[in-house]
Amino acid sequence: MAHPIYKACILKRREQIMMRKQAEEDYRSETAANEVDFRRTDWQRALDAANDKRFFQNEGVRKFNSDLLKEKIRKDNAAIVASKREKERKADQQRREKEEEMRQICIDAQRKVEDETRQRRRDKLALKDEHVKRTKEKKLSREEERQQEKEERGQLWALDEQHQQELRHEQRKELEAKDKKLKLHKEEIYRKNCLRQREIEKLNMKEMETKRVQTDREEVLQQRKQEKSEQFKKRQIPKDIVKEKLADARKQQAAQKIQREKVKLSKEVAEAEAKVIQRQKDAKEKRAAALKSIATHRSEKHHGNEQKEREEKEGSLDLLHQMKQCDRLSEEQNKLEVYLKRQNNIKHKEVLLSDAAKNKALLQQEIREETHATREMEKQIAEGEKQIQQYMQQEGKHLPAARTGQEVPDYNYFCRETDERLPKRGTAPLSRACLMKRYRERGSLQLATVDVRPHFLPTLSRAGDARHGSKDAGEPLPTKANSAWQRTPSPEEKIKQYLEKDKFQLKESSTADLRPTRLPTIKTPGAPAGRHSAPTGVESSKNRGKETGERLPRLDTPKSRDTKQENSKGNLQRTLLPPIHKKNSEKNLQRSFLPPITTTNTPAVKICSSRVVLRAHMTVTGEPLLRFATEQTKMIKREQEHLTIAGMN
Fold first, then answer.
1. Contact at 8 Å (CB) between 608 and 616?
2. Domain total for the chain?
3. Could you tell me which residues come within 8 angstroms of residue 242 by beta carbon, excluding any fewer than 6 positions away?
4. Which of 617, 599, 598 is nearest to 607 (CA)?
5. Residue 53: CB partners within 8 Å, gap ≥ 6?
6. What is the pLDDT of residues 319-357, one digit of tens each?
7. Of 274, 470, 475, 484, which has the fewest beta carbons less than 10 angstroms from its beta carbon?
8. Rounded Cα gap, residues 224 and 218, in angstroms
9. Residue 544: beta bridge partners?
10. Which of 263-277, 419-433, 481-495 is predicted most confidently?
11. What is the per-residue pLDDT across 589-598, written as a single tens digit (0 to 9) for each?
């Protein structure tokens, strides 16, 4: 759905175009009707003047009715002068009214166009402010989320650090206790070994003493032995057996005691090691549960952020499609307007050419009719003068001879063009004064059709025209009534002049003079003040308005919107907590970002910003990828996002 501001601007533009076209059609129809009436009245006036001249140019009538003729001529001259002045006054008044009306229409149109331009500019500024406001709100929300995630990450890091410190403290205590216990056990074993060594030495000393005593006894009793050898042998054999048994029993007792101590010591060591292993196992289980909860929280947060980004992306894509649809409709409307304008110009040109041909044919027909009427009138005048001369010759035989050919000034006759006194024409029909009068009268009949030619509308141009005056200077526009008479141009010259004057209206590309004067734009570092369109010979930018030529707000192209979305996504990804690697051991816990989770089926995906996407993809996949500006890279990115989502799920 198109934006309501764009829709209102399009409807308003259509209404303005329809109103302007209706005003032009009304003005053309009214001008054509006024022109027809003016030509009809002017033609009737010319015919009446010709009839009056034909009636009053008879020499005989002027001679026999001189007083009546003088009075009539005086009244006619006064009436002609008064009518001429009244006509000039009315023409001047009508011209001034038309000029004032046209000037007022131009001023109103210019003011209306300026108001529309200001309104469009205000709408654009409002739209731009709205975009800026939305961008700021999104930026603030993202900043708040980033700050919140940063705080949560700090809290989690603090908890993790505290947990690690506790684990290290417990390990340190366990190691100290273990070392202390081992040291005590070693001391006990050393003490017991020393005691056992002392007992063995005592036994050895006792055996040596026994042997020495026995040796002494043998030496002392050697003689007795010899004497009592048989008796001693009999008595000594059981004693030796008992001694050997006693020594063996003592040795066995010492060995059994040592074995019991060894078994007891090994059992205590095994129990201590089992306790240490159980304690380490419990610590591992606690740490695994904590890491699992942290990973679950991070994955949930990551999924939530991805869902939010997906929703924002869908909303931005919908808005992008709507703006594209609006731009396409506006472009189609502009093309249709240009096509209709071109067809209208072609039709108008054809109508003008047909009207010019018709006017040329009518003018030639009128000239032929006027020439024929003039010849017939000259014939009738010549016949009438001939009859009058014959009659005067018959009647004036008894009268004194009249003066002929003498030019006497008559103050009742004035020239229509110069307002000078005319000399009195003599009675000779072929005199110089008579011929000059006939020539001027014939010229006046031809001049009566000068203003009958069609009047063309002035061009809608801001530049001053030599024929219509300057609009900015406020000078009165000269017309045919108060300007010197010039030669009547031919129909071909009229058509050529009209095409030269209105060539800007017939051309599609030349619309400089048709546009009203606009206010200068706000000066920016990118574009100077007053610059609305590209220079001549340079292709206009797509980021400029087609009506005003001003720069449009940014983010109007799919590429720029995709770039902004990638940048925003990269900024959000930089704030995400990193996932935990399963292969990290207890001794390799990191305080910074941990590597991503890796599984057997899906590779690890590195989270990075859009500015280092190329390097990140090269380090992850090992192959150089293109930038995200083509369809291929967009497709690759979509596949990677699907793989990332599948790996996280």
1. yes
2. 2
3. none
4. 617
5. 441
6. 888 888 888 888 888 888 888 888 888 888 888 888 888
7. 484
8. 9
9. 551
10. 263-277
11. 344 334 443 4
